[in-house]
Design a protein that fits this description.
Elements lengths: L4 H30 L2 H15 L2 H15 L4 H12 L3 H22 L2 H9 L2 H13 L1 H9 L5 H10 L4 H27 L4 H31 L5
């Protein structure tokens, strides 16, 4: 069957995250080749090691504060991979969940009226709130899985939605896990940049893991669109 222009546009629209992920990974490889990334990463890792037991605590607090002030979560999670290796995964997930919970409470108990006014002017976020109110945890989890929806803004949005605290925390932990694995993986790869063989091995694993996560997010985006949320 011939691929019509309409079908081609539909395929491109649906699977553009795969292409974006491939470009991102290529950019990552080029970055290691063009800039002294290995030296920067070694320096960061050494500083974290010098802090000892205080390092994870300081990181946790900074992640929580950064989440409240809408600092991009991938940057903070990649830093955990660089500083703490794979031990950074549970640390980053815990810190992100704590930061998300703090934002949720601020939204629900402190800034509700102000955020409601802001929400009414943004159709996409308004539709997301209505979908969460109507379909509960399913939509909430899909929103967490979709990287198109900003993590920090979603925390405040869900504080206005009709969802329980326990459901919010559970969906947050499960929903951010795939993306956190990728972010930590990137940080771990950075630490191995000086070892060509290990770097190549980890990069191959990253590509396979990223492909799986992107496929999950593509499905999540599809379900969200069916629910009337344009992401």
């Amino acid at each position: 069957m011939a691929l019509t222009q309409r079908k081609a546009k539909r395929v491109a629209k649906r699977y553009w995250p795969l292409g974006a992920a491939a470009v991102g990974l290529l950019a990552l490889v080029l970055a290691w080749m063009l800039v002294p990334a290995a030296e920067w990463i070694d320096s960061l890792g050494q500083k974290a090691a010098e802090l000892g037991w205080a390092g994870p605590i300081i990181y946790f607090v900074l992640y929580v504060i950064g989440t409240i002030f809408l600092v991009p979560s991938p940057i903070m999670s990649i830093a955990a991979g660089v500083a703490f290796g794979w031990w950074g995964l549970p640390l980053a997930v815990a810190a992100a969940t704590a930061g998300a919970t703090a934002s949720f409470c601020l939204s629900r108990f402190c800034f509700g009226d102000t955020l409601e006014d802001w929400l009414t002017e943004r159709p996409t976020f308004n539709a997301a709130k209505k979908a969460v109110d109507e379909e509960g945890w399913r939509i909430q989890l899909l929103l967490r899985l979709s990287p198109v929806v900003p993590f920090g803004l979603l925390n405040y949005l869900l504080g206005l939605a009709n969802t329980s605290f326990a459901t919010y925390v559970t969906c947050t932990v499960i929903g951010i896990l795939p993306g956190s694995i990728i972010d930590i993986y990137i940080g771990v790869i950075g630490k191995s940049a000086s070892n060509t063989v290990q770097f190549a091995y980890l990069l191959a694993g990253l590509i396979a893991t990223a492909a799986l996560v992107v496929l999950i997010t593509v499905k999540a985006r599809g379900y969200l669109r069916e629910a009337g949320i344009k992401v």
